[in-house]
Design goal:
The chain is α/β, with parallel strands linked by helices and 230 residues long. It folds into 2 domains: 1-35, no CATH class; 37-223, Rossmann fold (3-Layer(aba) Sandwich). The protein contains 8 helices and 7 strands, in the order H-H-H-H-E-H-E-E-H-E-H-E-H-E-E. The protein has a 7-stranded mixed sheet, with helices on both faces. Helix 7 (149-170) packs parallel to helix 8. Bound molecules: S-adenosylmethionine. The site of S-adenosylmethionine has 22 residues, from helix 5.
Length: 230
């Protein structure tokens, strides 16, 4: 009965919408996100990466760039214990930034309607850090896609360089940085630049990332630190 109703509703939609709904209905991560109260299925990408590489630990300071609707921040708040749910564990900090508004999450400070790439936003983050350095910089930021692959790739690379620069200036030695990209020609260039600052850099495509999506993550671990020139 329900299936019949869904399929008759579907027939009234455009082909793209039909495909999207069908995919959502059959996607195990969409179901699991609902079940676990995550705001979207992306949560499982970070969960899978963190299960394997332990990049976020209790007590860590985490910056989540491009945080809306908030599922990575939900995961980060649990893992670094900024939500203070784990007794006797160090309490961390999560700061999430997005162009959009994000509904509050316990243990997370959001900078809403904020463009991470501007010095105004980055100065606000630095003020919130109160002299502390960061353990983890996450960027799942994605610009509005134009549909022209090379342009979209280029735009995301520019944003990623902005994230990398922020991370290099504001991170602790041995910290981690995880950045999303869309596949394209300049990936090797930024990968090599990340290697200058981090001891270990690798490409990651978590199982929860759709196989038909061009997205890929670069995980940079063990920040080497920078020497101050006096
Ligand atoms: C794929 S979503 C992030 C999903 C998020 N990780 C989650 O799990 O809920 C990408 C986000 O990047 C944000 N974004 C794009 N450009 C940005 C910028 N310059 N500054 C801040 N956020 C940006 C978009 O508004 C969008 O919400």
């Amino acid at each position: 009965m329900l299936n019949k109703q869904i399929s008759s509703n579907l027939q009234r939609r455009s082909k793209n919408t039909q495909e999207w709904i069908t995919r959502q209905l059959s996607d195990p991560y969409v179901k699991a996100a609902k079940y676990h109260n995550f705001r979207c299925r992306s949560a499982f990408k970070l969960i899978q990466i963190n299960e394997k590489y332990k990049i976020i630990n209790p007590g860590n300071i985490v910056i989540d760039c491009g945080a809306a609707p908030g599922s990575w921040s939900q995961v980060a708040a649990v893992e670094c214990n900024s939500n203070q749910k784990r007794n006797k564990m160090p309490i961390g900090t999560v700061i999430g930034i997005d162009l959009l508004n994000i509904f509050p999450i316990e243990g997370v400070t959001f900078l809403n309607q904020s463009d991470f790439t501007t010095s105004e936003t980055q100065n606000k983050i630095i003020n919130l850090l109160n002299g502390e350095k960061v353990d983890v910089v996450l960027s799942d930021m994605a610009p509005n896609a134009s549909g022209i692959k090379s342009l979209d790739h280029e735009k995301l690379i520019e944003m990623a360089y902005n994230v990398l620069k922020f991370a290099v200036i504001n991170s602790k030695v041995n910290s981690n940085c995880l950045i999303k990209f869309w596949a394209g020609g300049r990936l090797t260039e930024i990968e090599n630049d990340m290697r200058r600052f981090y001891s270990n850099v690798k490409y990651i495509k978590p199982d929860a990332s759709r196989s038909d999506s061009a997205e890929i993550y670069l995980l940079a671990r063990f920040f080497k630190g920078i020497k101050k020139i006096v």
